[in-house]
Amino acid sequence: MASTPRTLYEKIWDQHVVEQRDDGTCLLYIDRHLVHEVTSPQAFEALRLTGRSVRRPDLTLAVPDHNLPTTPRLAADGSRLPIADAQSAAQLAALERNAPAFGIDYIDAVAAEQGIVHVVGPEQGFSLPGATIVCGDSHTAAHGGVGALAFGIGTSEVEHVLATQTLQLRRSKSMEVRVDGDLGPGVTPKDLILHIIGVIGTAGGTGYVIEYRGKVFEQMSVEGRLTVCNMSIEGGARAGLIAPDDTVFAYLKGRPYAPQGEDWERAVTWWRSLATDEGARFDKSVAIDAAGVEPTVSWGTSPEDVVAVGGVVPAPDSFADPSKQEAVRKSLEYMGLEPGTPIEDIAVENIFIGSCTNSRIEDLRAAAEVLKGRTKAANVRWAIAVPGSGLVKRQAEAEGLDQIFTDAGFEWREPGCSACLAMNPDKVPPGERCASTSNRNFVGRQGPGARTHLVSPAMAAAAAVTGRLADVRKLAPCQAASG
Amino acid sequence: MKAVSTIEGRAIPLGLKNVDTDVIIPAHWLKTISREGLGKGAFETIRAAPGNPFDVEDFANAPILIAGDNFGCGSSREHAAWAMLDMGLTAVIAPSFSDIFAGNAFKNGILAVELPQEQVDRLLEVAKDQPVTIDLENQVVTTPFQDRFEFEIDPFRKRCLLEGLDEIGLTLGSESAITTHEHMRQGSMPWLDKPKRREAA
């Protein structure tokens, strides 16, 4: 049957429409639902109050991450250590109770597979190409890295998916972000996505689903793709995705939840057919030359506030939009920065390597490569490395990376969301700066008054050893981009 | 959901752009397992500054907030909508909203009204000492000065809001279509069904 050329997004969307209403609203089937402790308790409670059950517990996977302290979880005798914060403990206990009560697979806090929900999904092979994946967390966009249509939802939608395995949605517009050429040495997927957000703006993707296309993404590892797609939401796009290819199939094969045998072969054939057709139309296209992307750092309190590491803190007047000028003035005041200050002159007291954006094994390797044989600068008070999952942690330890981190003066932690958001004990003190591999530099995000500079893992490591935001390329011979 | 028709009253002229949901409700308030009581933490960092618009006595219990572009960006936390409801806000007017916040607002009966920047600027001015009215049925925002700004809203959302419909109840009305889809999916994409966890190879 001849058909109109379609994009990857349109193909996945069309495949999942249960029903389209006259007003254009669609009932969309959801293939995978990831659940964590923060955005689910009110949804489970509502199911209880309305006497509803979970329609497809088999398509749902729960794991705690946001609240969990990243300090050791087991006592010497193997018993679970209590969680000091009573509210956090209650929220974690609610998930531990709700998941089995509704028949949902639950990875508990001390399991080797526990980790940040967006690290766990792909790692377990639960997140698959061509699938619709949701979670009550905006960084669900990450799973687009394996070629899934994945997006964050609110708690009412969590309840809706639990009860019906569908969502009422309208199709988004489509945006192509094409990056051709090669990333330079020391320039990583994190630098690229920060650069992209700087170009399109934090609302540039609102109402769109982004497909990242071009040679750079074709050559990128799955982990790099997860990093890029993860921050689509920082560009306003609810989802971002990359066409699944052999790199993805090789990554997924043999993972615990991945299809096997004949199912695997059928799935791969289907996944290959998902790539955007020749001639398919995007509602908006942005082209970026990879060669122009530098190691990138945020200076303000919005993820669009980025600059190449060799640059300076911008002046409010350098922006055309008066409301942006005002926002920049407020940002600089909060950040304690003067316009014109070279980025490399900014001293940092804290280093955070972790989060759903940058806590996978390649991220830890990239940071460790810079840290090897070096120690953190005297002015760096606190440096932590937080693996994205217990399995990442185990792998890193098998490679001796934990030793490199601790020799460099880092604390080596248990997996969790940690200092990405000020919800567990890992916080940045008021007025202090943090070079952070996380995804948001919002006011108060890492703690009240905390000043966040978003960077790649290698750049965070460079900041740790120099005590200031630094160009990693000046420090060490750089190898192929990762992280 | 409670039915919504007309919202009338004072409107807090915040005006800020890119108000993210960490600003609407910081993460440390998210440890609750309830939807109630989050108003205390709403806009905490903004309210900590002396002279902020939330402190102005005239705006106590105001039902409307006026903000800048990209309101509600960032985290998907529905706690942002719950916190706003808890402080008495039932509508936000802004030039644009993040997709996720707009959805969360709708599910909680909060009207997210999109108007062009120049109309928002006018309302920011008027709101300093006059009330604002949002008429959902007629899709129009008015002021005592004959301002009349029409707005667009998704027809499905409008109907749900006006009638106070339970969206899950509506969807369950399509249960046979869902079941049919599941059967189709089981045949054509069996690997998506009943994923079974096993040891990694």
UniProtKB/TrEMBL annotation, chain B:
Lyase as UniProt keyword: yes
Keyword Hydrolase included in the entry's annotation: no
Top class in the EC scheme: lyase
E.C. code: 4.2.1.33
Subunit description: Heterodimer of LeuC and LeuD.
GO molecular function, one term: 3-isopropylmalate dehydratase activity
A GO BP entry: L-leucine biosynthetic process
Superkingdom of origin organism: Bacteria
SUPFAM superfamilies: LeuD/IlvD-like
Gene3D superfamilies, sorted: Aconitase, domain 4 (3.20.19.10)
NCBIfam families: leuD (TIGR00171), PRK01641.1 (NF002458)
Catalytic activity: (2R,3S)-3-isopropylmalate = (2S)-2-isopropylmalate
Region Disordered, residue ranges: 182-201
Name this protein carries in UniProt: 3-isopropylmalate dehydratase small subunit
Keywords: Amino-acid biosynthesis, Branched-chain amino acid biosynthesis, Leucine biosynthesis, Lyase
Protein task: Catalyzes the isomerization between 2-isopropylmalate and 3-isopropylmalate, via the formation of 2-isopropylmaleate.
Similarity-based family: Belongs to the LeuD family. LeuD type 1 subfamily.
Name of the coding gene: leuD
All residue ranges annotated as the Aconitase A/isopropylmalate dehydratase small subunit swivel domain in the record: 1-118
Naturally occurring in which organism (per UniProt): Qipengyuania flava
Pathways per UniProt: Amino-acid biosynthesis; L-leucine biosynthesis; L-leucine from 3-methyl-2-oxobutanoate: step 2/4
GO cellular component terms, A-Z: 3-isopropylmalate dehydratase complex
